[in-house]
Amino acid sequence: TMAQLVQAEKMSELGKLTAGIAHEINNPIGYIRSNLESMTDYTASFRDIFAQLSQLEQEVGELRVPLQALQKQYDIQFLLEDCEDIVQTNIKGIDRISGIVSDLYAFSRRADGTFKAMDIHPVLQRCINLTRSRFADHHTVELDVSAVDTRLRGDTSQLEQVLMNLMLNAAHAMPGVGTLTIAVKGDALWLEISLTDTGTGMPKATLNRIFTPFFTTKPTGQGTGLGLSISQGIIRAHGGTIVATSDVGKGTTFTLRLPRQQDGSQ
Ligand code: ADP
Ligand code: MG
Asked: Which among 235, 250, 136, 241 is positioned nearest to 197, based on CA atoms?
């Protein structure tokens, strides 16, 4: 239908754009990172030289005064520390950008927006298998599709990306023993998928921001904060909604509501 076509076009434009951005950014990141790594090597050598100079200074007493003057003049130690800080900060920044780029890239590869007749049950099963290694032995993952019709029109790989992200977030939110319960319900028009974890939960201030691009509470390098904003984009492109409720110390529930058809036709 027309609405689906427009949507598919929007998504594929977005895909091309993000693929382009990812490629343009990835290249310079590669060489900036290796430059910074060699700079780390240089500062290490300088440190070595500095240590040897200090050694020499102690061994050759007469040189003490001029060497101290030299050291003061250039304040080598301070410069080195400054330099190392800058290098380390830059490397961290680059690793963060790399993470964002690979998220965008994963998204663009999948953003073909082709809505086809599909079944969410095997997709859920596949996501559970794919994320198995990220759940620990003390975790239980339960899937309840209790005889509901699990078919809808959608983009399999995009919905898989959404479910993967929700499952990985849940695994991350359960540092100790925990259970993720995935339930699918539905009626003639809508399919409802809920993912409930018994994890840390979120305070209201966090909950209010989870769909904001780049919002993350994870340490640098561990999260880009793009997962839920991309997920929300995908669910909206399907004509659906994604909402979260959470209780600190008890856990979190994400509920996806997806129309069986994007515009009620067919
Ligand atoms: P990322 O996983 O890279 O941090 P997301 O967009 O997937 O980015 O998630 C954003 C933030 O939402 C997370 O950093 C975390 O604070 C919070 N969050 C998401 N899912 C859960 C969950 N199941 N339990 C607790 N907090 C969550
Ligand atoms: Mg995530």
From this structure: 250
d(CA 108, CA 112): 8
In angstroms, how far apart are the furthest CA atoms of the chain? 94
Q: Is the CB of 99 under 6 A from ligand 1?
A: no
Please tell me the number of the ligand nearest to residue 245's CA: 1
| Band of pLDDT at residue 9, cut at 50, 70 and 90 | low
pLDDT higher at 254 or 13 = 254
Per-residue pLDDT of 171-195, as tens digits, reads: 999 998 999 999 999 999 999 999 9
212 lines ligand 1 (CB under 6 A): no
User: What span, in angstroms and rounded, lies between the C-alpha atoms of 44 and 70?
Assistant: 20
Query: Is the beta carbon of 202 within 6 A of some atom in ligand 1?
Result: yes
